């Protein structure tokens, strides 16, 4: 290996890949298996000469313009890419978890309500975070840090036994019959099951993305039933009149903008 390291530093040496395999006493198949044994996910390896093992993957054109260090990698896992970006952005937040944990332990010793605990933790996080002057101004003036043109909606694709349901408020529960099992707030699946017969050919994804369910009829209340503050066109609103749900617990109204569906990818 010391000999190979010496060869890799010698720019004038033209060691071929076949000669490299002879030095390590392997064939190509064994060499590939050895490399694969270290990785649990797919990764791209660019073909290069043995003399270039210490040179980062780069783009000659970008390097001539950027004139800085470069290490390019092919992205095969979007989640890993996002995790890397988030961890890089949050470098200044190192130690925050320990700080919040200590604050939570102090709160547990008192008789604080959950709401008070959450407020203390939120203030602790904001007061201990490093932010730029611009972001501080945005917080002081209550200016939103981001604005989106589309709203999103999450579809719980977990198995039925792993799905979480929200219990109705105490006020509603007290009005129910003691033997009633209708104690949960209806979710997307319940709404879809109880959709109008006129929508029997609408799939679950389209129902979630294209329609809103409201408790009251809103023929011309376009902005109220669309959470995007979008520009409402009259003829778009009148194309689809509200339909009553089978269980009479709401009305279905078509949106003028589709929601972006989020779901757990197994």
Would you give an account of this structure?
The protein is mainly α. The chain contains 13 helices and 5 strands. The protein folds into 3 domains: 2-76, no CATH class; 91-140, no CATH class; 152-263, no CATH class. Helices cover 41% and strands 7% of the residues. β3 and β4 (251-254) form a beta hairpin. The protein starts with a helix and ends with a strand. Residues 220-238 have low confidence and may be disordered.
Name the features.
3 domains; two-stranded parallel sheet; 266 residues; mainly alpha; 5 strands
Mean pLDDT, rounded to whole units? Answer: 79
Radius of gyration: 29 Å
Structural class: mainly alpha
How many β-strand stretches? 5
Residue share in β-strands: 5-15%
Strand order of the largest sheet: 2-4-3
Termini separation comes to 43 Å
SSE blueprint and pairings:
Elements lengths: L1 H8 L7 H8 L3 H9 L23 H7 L11 H12 L6 H13 L5 H15 L4 H8 L11 E4 L14 H6 L12 H6 L10 H7 E4 L7 H4 L8 H5 L4 E2 L6 E4 L5 E4 L3
Parallel strand pairs: 1-5
Antiparallel strand pairs: 2-4, 3-4
Helix pairs in contact: 6-7
Question: How would you briefly describe this protein structure?
Answer:
The protein is mostly helical and 266 residues long.
